[in-house]
Specification:
The protein has about 350 residues and is of the alpha+beta class. Strands 4-12-11-6-7-8 form a six-stranded mixed beta sheet, with no helix packed on it. The protein has a five-stranded mixed beta sheet with strand order 14-21-20-16-17. A four-stranded antiparallel beta sheet has the order 3-5-10-9, with no helix packed on it. Strand 18 and strand 19 form a beta hairpin. It starts with 7 loop residues before the first helix and ends with a helix.
């Protein structure tokens, strides 16, 4: 058959060269120069699994760089924001030991591993080969906060005999979603009996825990823990029936006595207000009293002085009129003598 088709070998060779040309252009390792096959011996990048990588906080992040025909050249990982060389070959140059270079012998994969990734690790990373000129490929890492959200407050009070209802969800959806566990203190809760657990791991992780017929023994710290996220906890207090009734009665009593308390408070407020007004008056009186006493003493002294002056004046007057008095006395004496000398008829 081949003897009857001498053109077939030429056709097969042309087809093979065309396929090699297409593959060579796609990979960068083979070209055709003037119809002669030519293989490139310089390093070049192979398509990576992903150049935009998303990781959850606390989990390991992986950036995969594939280099063919590396030869004696080295692959380095550089953080773009500060141009810090993290790894070169399989050696780590960063002081942060969370960064590691993973490489298997005779493998084209040079992987940068970031253990316990943090939100601040978000940014661009460069896979670089020290050729002349240097070649590089850029990767972007986005680290998301892996938080678990618990609905409601972190302190719950439940009546004995009622149902404990708790719901938690994750801040983002993870792929794959992973597993989720509920704990009471250190005990893992399992579905069955009084405990009902329903979890959805599709678009976002949402889980609901129901504990029917709650008793005092069901009190404790309840934790929702998705395996790829940080846990969230809530403290549940189961109140016995008698305590709940006493609490309700106490609340009612407090409501009934509110008016009396208000009246007493008003009376005390009035008393305090009266005292507040009376105190300044007493203080002013206390400071005014010495001045009044001084004025009174001064007036009394002046009165005594005036009385003394008047008495002295009276004494002087009496002393001055003594000769006149003596004259009158002499006249009276002479009249008596004359009466004695007149003879009787």
């Amino acid at each position: 058959m081949l003897r009857g088709a001498p053109w077939l070998p030429a056709l097969l060779l042309d087809t093979l060269l065309s396929v090699l040309s297409v593959v060579g252009h796609a990979s960068g390792g083979f070209t055709l120069e003037q119809g002669i096959p030519h293989f490139n011996t310089k390093p070049y990048f192979l398509p990576p699994p992903a150049r935009n990588v998303t990781a959850l906080e606390g989990q390991s992040a992986y950036l995969h760089c594939r280099v063919a025909q590396l030869g004696d050249k080295k692959v380095s990982w550089i953080r773009r924001r500060d141009l810090h060389v993290l790894t070169s070959g399989v050696h780590t140059f960063a002081s942060d030991q969370r960064f590691l270079a993973l490489h298997a012998d005779r493998s084209e994969n040079w992987t940068l591993q970031i253990r316990f990734s943090q939100v601040r690790d978000t940014g661009d990373y460069q896979c670089q080969v020290n050729t002349d000129p240097r070649i590089s490929m850029l990767f972007t890492l986005n680290v998301l906060e892996a938080a678990t959200l618990m609905e409601g407050s972190d302190q719950r009070y439940v009546r004995a005999g009622s149902t404990i209802q708790l719901t938690c969800s994750t801040s983002i959806a993870s792929q794959p979603p992973g597993l989720l566990y509920w704990y009471r203190d250190t005990e893992i809760l399992k579905h069955g009996g009084r405990v009902n657990i329903s979890t959805s791991l599709e678009d976002e992780t949402v889980s609901r825990l129901l504990v029917h017929g709650a008793s005092v023994n069901d009190s404790g710290n309840y934790t929702c823990w998705p395996t790829k996220f940080l846990p969230a906890s809530v403290m549940v207090h189961v109140i016995p029936e008698e305590n709940a009734a006493a609490k309700s009665h106490s609340t009612a009593s407090n409501g009934a006595g509110s008016s009396t308390t208000s009246t007493g408070t008003t009376a005390r407020a009035s008393s305090i207000a009266t005292r507040g007004l009376l105190l300044p008056f007493l203080l002013s009186l206390l400071f005014t009293l010495p001045k009044l006493t001084t004025r009174t003493e001064t007036a009394t002294t002046l009165s005594i002085t005036a009385a003394t002056t008047a008495s002295a004046a009276s004494t002087t007057t009496c002393t001055t009129s003594t000769p006149a008095t003596d004259s009158v006395t002499s006249s009276l004496r002479r009249g008596q003598t004359m009466r004695r000398e007149v003879p009787e008829r």
